[in-house]
Every structure is written in C-alpha cells, then in structure tokens.
Amino acid sequence: MDAEGRLRGAGAHAATRTVAVTVPDWPLLAALDRHQRQEEKNSKPQAKVQVEGSCLIDPMSAPVILLDQHRVTHAGAAAREAGVLPGMKRRAARAACPEALVLEADREHESALFELVAAAVDTIAAGVDVLRPGVLLMSARGPARHQGGEERLAEQILDAVAELTGWDCAVGIADGPFAALLASPHGRIVRPGRSADYLAPHPIAALRSAPVGPGWGHRGQPSATRPARRLDLVETVDLLQRLGITTLGDLAALPSAAVADRFGPDVATLHLLARGKEPAPPAAHHPTQPILAETTLETPLVRTDQAAFIARPLAEQLHAMLVERGLVCTRLRIVARTEGGEEMERTWRHDGALTVADVVDRIRWQCDGWITRARLGGPATGAITRIGLHPLQLAPAGENAPALWGSAGEAAQRASRALARAQGLAGEEAVQVPVLTGGRLLAEEAVLVPWRSEKPARREGPWPGALPKPAPATVFRSPPPVRLEDAEGRPVVVTARGLLSAAPAQLLISAPGLPSLQRAGLRAGSGYPVLGHGAPTVIDERWWVKNGHRAARMQLVVRGASAEETAVLALSRTGEWTLEGIYD
Amino acid sequence: MSTALQVEDREQRLLRARAALGAAERSAARWGGRIDRTALQPSGSPSGESADDGLGTRLPVPGPLQGLFPRGSLRAGSSVAIEGSASTSLLLSLAAAAAGEDSWCAIAGMPDLGLRSALDAGLDPCRLALAPADGEQRPQVLSALADGVGVLVLGPDLDLAPALWRSLLGRARTADTLVLAAAPPGRADLTLRAATQGWAGLGQGSGRLHRRRLEITSEGRGIAGYRTAEVLLPQVSGMIAEAPQSRESHENARPVRLLRPVRRAG
C-alpha cells in the first residue's frame, strides 16, 4: 500500500494494487500439524517407520473437524461430505460423522505457524502484511515490476510457499484488499480498474470475509480514541439480505452518504470495500516524503561515548524535520549497519513526544548494548559504520503539544530533568513507574515499566480472590519458601476444599534469609510461633486449562525474634508454602 | 471604592477562568498528564499546607504524626531516618504526605516494594518513580534524583557508604529535597523508631488483618528528649490514622470516676 493512497481521503482515491495470499482452511491445517507433532512426540519410543506411516492425515480423504468454543469452525472435505457444517455443535458433528478426527482450534499456534508462510512470501516480495493467520496482503506494484509481471509474481509466490513450507496457497491480485481477497481462492488476477465489476456479482454473504472488524491483524485494532466496537458481520449480512440487497453490486449501488447515515461508520467501510475502494487508516500519519535521518561514519564506531557524540546531531536533524511538519514520533526504529554489512535494528516505543535528548539516549543505549555484546564474546558485530533513525509511527503533534497552561509545573519539569538524567546515566531501566494492570497475585497486580515508555493496558477485573486492603508493604519478587507446622510438627496443607488440614502453630523459614525477612525478625532456619491466622482464600486461576494455577492465600501473625508481632501473607501452591509479602 | 470593587471583580474573574481552564485541562490530560497543579491554586492563598515562614519551606506530615515533629511539620531539605519495624509503611505514608499536591517522589533501593500499598498510602502514581539504583552508576543516579525530586526515599537494601549519605544530604539541603531513609549509615535530622504494639482483626482461623497499632518515638534536632505517639498503620484502608484510646486506659479511667468524693450529709 503506497503512502499516497493512504493520504487521500476515504472518498476519492484509487485503491492500491494488492496481492492477497491465502492458505485455504488454514486453521484446519495448523491444527492437523499440531496434532501430528503431538502424535510423533507421544509415540517416540515406538518404531519410527510405523509413526511415519500413521501420522500423514490428508484432510481431503480422512474426515477432520475443527472446533472452537464447542462449535465447528472448519470441516475437511470428507467431513463436509458426511454432512458436517460449520456452526454445528460438537455433538451434532460427531453424530453426522462419528469416525472424524476432532481437533481444537488454537489461535496462538495458527499465527505462529503462519509466520513460516509469511517468511516464505517474504523471500519474493517485501512489505508482507499478515492480516490474520491464513491471509496476508502486500502491495503488488513494486514486486510485480521486479518479477516481471503480475502472473509471474503469483507463480513465484506459489512456488516459494510450496517449496519452503510444503503448503499450497492461493494468490489473487486486484485493486484494493477486498477484491484481492475474494480473487485469491480462485487464483484470479483482476485487471486494474475492474475491481468493482469483479466484486459486483458476488453474493452479499461474501462480506463475511471482508477485512474489517476484530481479528483482522493490525487493521482490526481499536483506535485509541474510539472504544472497540464489535462489528457483527453475520448480523450485518443478514440485515442487508432482509433489505433485499443480495449482491455486492446492489450494496455498491447505494449512495455512500445514505449508507453511512443509516448504518453507521462500520457498514460504510463495508460499502467502501464493496465499491472496490479501500479505507484509509485513520490514526497514523504517512508523510509523502519519508522522514529519516541517517549518517555514515567515516571512522567506524567502537566505543559508546563515540556513539553519543554522533547521536546528537542526528537526533537534532530528525527533530527539526518533525517540528517542521508538526509531527511527533511515538515509535522510532534505530538501524545500524556494521562493517560486515550486517544490519542491526531495534524499535523503541514512547508514550509521548521523543525529544532530542530521548533519542540520543536511546541511540546510546542501543550502541552500548551492541558493543558490550561484542566484547562479551557474543556474535561479533563488528564496528558500526552507519546509523539511521526511522520514525515508524508518526502522529500529529496536537495531543503532545505544550499544555494549555504553557508548560508543565516547575516541580514536574525539575523531576523530569532529573529522571531523564538518571536514565541517561544508567539506562532505561534505571527509572521505572508503576502501572496498575490488575490481577489476583500482588506481584501481578502492578507492574513496573521504564519511565516514559509505553504502558501496558489494564486488564479489567473482576479479580475474585484478590487481597482486600490493607496490602502488605513488601511484596517479594521471588517469594521465599516457608513451612507451616501444626502443634505436633506435621506440615499444614490446604485441602482441596480450601480448608486447613490443622491449625498452624509454627512458621519455619527454610531458605537462607532475604534481608527484608531478617529486618522483620524472621531468620532462616528457625521457627516462629503463629499467634493468629485467617481462613485460607482460594485463588483459582485458569482452572479450565492444564497449566492453570490453584493457590490459597492466608494471613498470619507470628511472633518474630524481637518478640514483636509480625504479619505476613503466605501463599500455598501444590502443598508448598511461600511468603507473598510482609506487612512491614 | 469603585477601583477596589473592580480589582476584586477582576480577581474573581481570573479565579473563575483559571478554574475553568484547569477543569478543561484535567479532562483533556492523558494518563500521567502534565498538569501544573500550582497554577490551579487560588492566587491569594498559600499552596497547600507547605508555607514559607522564613525558616525554609515546611512540608506537611500525616496528621496523626504531627506531634512527633518540631512545629508539626518537616523542613524541606531535611532528612528523616526510620528504624525498627513497620519502616516501609511509615516511609510510604510520610512520603505521601510530604509529596502533597505537586512534588515528585522517587523511591530508590526498594526492589520488593508492594506497589499497591504505596498507592493505597496516598502516593500519586503519576508522580512516582522507582529507581533500582543497583548499578555502577548508583552514586550519580542517586545524586540526580536528590537534585530533582521533592521527596527522595532511600530503602534499607541500599547499603549506602557513609560518605555518599553525607553528600546526598548536602545535595538535598541545597535542592530542598526531603530525604526519608530506612536505616541510613549516618546521622539524620530526625530519627523515628517504630515498635509494633499488635495487630487486630485476625483470629484463630477467621477474620483478616485490619489494623496495626504502632508506637512511634522521635528524637533529633529540635526535640528535647524524645516524643512518642501511637498510631494505626496500616488502617483498614491502608492509610495512617490516629490510634483510639485503648481499652486499658478506659478501664483505668472508670474507677477514678467512681471514687468521686461524696460528702456524707447529716
């Protein structure tokens, strides 16, 4: 997708020439692949020949059903013949085809495996954009010119994917992503300017594969300003059908203003797609001229302070370019080329505007890392001969422009200078800020991120089992193991029903002491009498999966070495007690 | 007369405009936005409890602890050492009170700090920074923090050299930074020592921790001998509170009331 196409408004622009590469029934293929690997792993002790014979399942001949949340999402050809349809319940599907192999969908695995396909396509053309597992898009113009024609490009992609991964894919080329997507299963190449004609006869149900809404790669991500709304494509298609709109051509024939008025922005996007156009992504800014600052070093870089020396003019150059255009950079990629021709890069995210000093610091940290890595005998990087700054994400400066009251308060300015200095001295991790993310365990509830880096999103609760106030002032990053014993010296455990096996009488610190434990008067290797204890609170985390956690948490008051009462928070997991925190 | 009225009117209009702008900015500011809270204060009155009285800026302390400090507040640029049990929660509540409305707080050398208790104690997450301060650059990082933030908290695991402690105190004094340290290697202006009197709320297999009664003793510059106070820290909400009169003292008081002299008549 070229920059000009994105810059022009949603109304008047030609859609980009797009290649869509799809692997039909990708979730099914990925699930089969996983299944076969597991089989191999399970039957390793047995004869290898037998395994090789048994593990090859062909979805065309053997019936395979893929389930997601107890509904059939994909069925192999043989299963479809037997009457299994997507949307069926597990029980109905098994009744229709009892001998079928039933597999569960796994999005993670699907996307991870699809990286192989993406990498294979990447050997033919650059700028591959994975929309969702099974579908990837890229701009056709440059690669087609390079390969000598669109037909040739399609062939090359098919060959590369088959050769490098062994899967069959389908390639479609058209103006705009939607037409390319619809063309790809048939391997069609739609002539330039004819996308609308190609789309028109398709039934309206084809909108279900439109690249909008959740689950569609980065395009589906909700914007920061607008809360995520789910566009229910099935419902929309149903509604349009009831209104008598049966083909994409009927939808495209409607006036766009009327569609936007009647159905809102999401269906307006669909309308735009049905007309063979493409929506422009709203938030990011794509300048017509790429903004980047690069410098070639006459004498290769071998020391960190040299890096700082060159970094500043480079950062100033970039900053001037951004200020000129009224932009701020929220994601920056720093690329360095070494003597050996190797390229090393890292992307930095930042929650506000990157100032010159910030950029200088990041260049320095990065060069520092590389140079130390070379010194420590890691993969030798060689001296750095070229450094480039590529802003990846640009936004209009509006939000990050100076505040309404002029500048920040004096205290905030002083503090941010000091914190920036501390980060400049000792690296990004030297100054951290807390972010409440939510969770049951105290250590998960709030996380520390480097100051002025992007903050993780808050995971909305409720968190049953979370600790009520007051919270312990010390929460161990690595919880020290302890033992709880009853009056007879037997270990106290939490039963499956969440009850204590006996009243605890003694707390024994087993690990060699942490300093904060010792300060609280709890030394390693000795026992302390328990004065009071609460009822254990059961924390069930992800009990529905195998690696879920089941834990119980209990407050204890013990008499420490200095004869003072000390309150601690103990956590029991699989019969082992640890200390989660101390109220000190 | 009329000019006086005009001046007042103008001041009021300015106040109103500032309030409206402040509200607008607060609603537009993102998480961690850069709001100049001092600008939102009414122009005439001093900002918060911190006031300049010729002896340097005074910083507020938690209400229940006021009796422990000379003049009921802390001087900016001074240092407080905290010893004994409950040092972490005491550090947090002092830092929260001293940071007030607009100064920043940096916590160094407390890797195992419970972040939720820090926020419960009243620290503003937008104005809080944590520095592990564990590398080679530790002296420089600590000095940079002492120069910049309003309240610097030094944890007990820092293991400072006495020389670094003294130089930090010097820097803090010039930059008007309050230094709160747990078990510092040298002298501080004030020393607070806390002893746990007991926890309440937990039974044998029932209940949960509600509050802890602490006896805090302070001594140091400006205090003759020592002063003592009883507080609840943490209280149910995680904050500090004044300790209510204990039951024993009630029981002690009752016989006194019974022994009122009664004159026998006749």
Identify low-pLDDT runs of chain A: 1-12, 47-55, 214-229, 399-407
Strand content of chain B: 15-25%
Q: What is the CATH architecture descriptor of the domain at 14-166 in chain A?
A: 3-Layer(aba) Sandwich
Low-confidence stretches of chain B: 30-51, 250-258
Helix content of chain B: 25-40%
Q: Tell me the name of the CATH class of the domain at 14-166 in chain A.
A: Alpha Beta
Report on the structure:
The complex is a heterodimer of chains A (584) and B (266). Among the domains of chain A are: 14-166, MutS, DNA mismatch repair protein, domain I; 293-417, Dna Ligase, domain 1, CATH 3.30.1490; 474-583, no CATH class. In chain A, strands 15-16-17-19-20-21 form a six-stranded antiparallel beta barrel. In chain A, strands 5-6-1-7 form a four-stranded antiparallel β-sheet, sandwiched between helices. Chain A has a four-stranded antiparallel β-sheet with strand order 8-11-9-10, with helices on one face. In chain A, helix 15 packs antiparallel against helix 16. Chain A has 584 residues and is an alpha+beta fold. The longest helix of chain A has 22 residues, at 304-325. Chain A contains 19 helices and 21 strands. Chain B has 266 residues and is an alpha/beta fold. Chain B has one domain: 3-Layer(aba) Sandwich (Rossmann fold). Helices cover 33% and strands 23% of the residues of chain B. Chain B has seven helices and eleven strands. Chain B has helices at 2-28, 37-40, 87-99, 115-120, 138-148, 162-175, 247-258, and strands at residues 58-59, 74-75, 79-84, 105-108, 128-131, 151-154, 178-182, 190-202, 207-220, 227-232, 241-242. Chain B has a nine-stranded mixed β-sheet with strand order 5-4-6-7-3-8-9-10-11, with helices on both faces. In chain B, strands 1-2 form a two-stranded antiparallel ribbon. In chain B, helix 6 links the parallel strand 6 and strand 7 (178-182). In chain B, helix 5 runs parallel beside helix 6. The longest helix of chain B is centred in the N-terminal third of the chain and has 27 residues, at 2-28. Chain B is globular, with a radius of gyration of 23 Å. Mean pLDDT of chain B is 81; it is low at 30-51 and 250-258. Classes of the chains: A alpha+beta (584), B alpha/beta (266). Chains A and B meet through helix 17, strand 12, strand 14, helix 19 and strand 19 of A and helix 1, helix 2, helix 3, helix 4 and strand 5 of B.
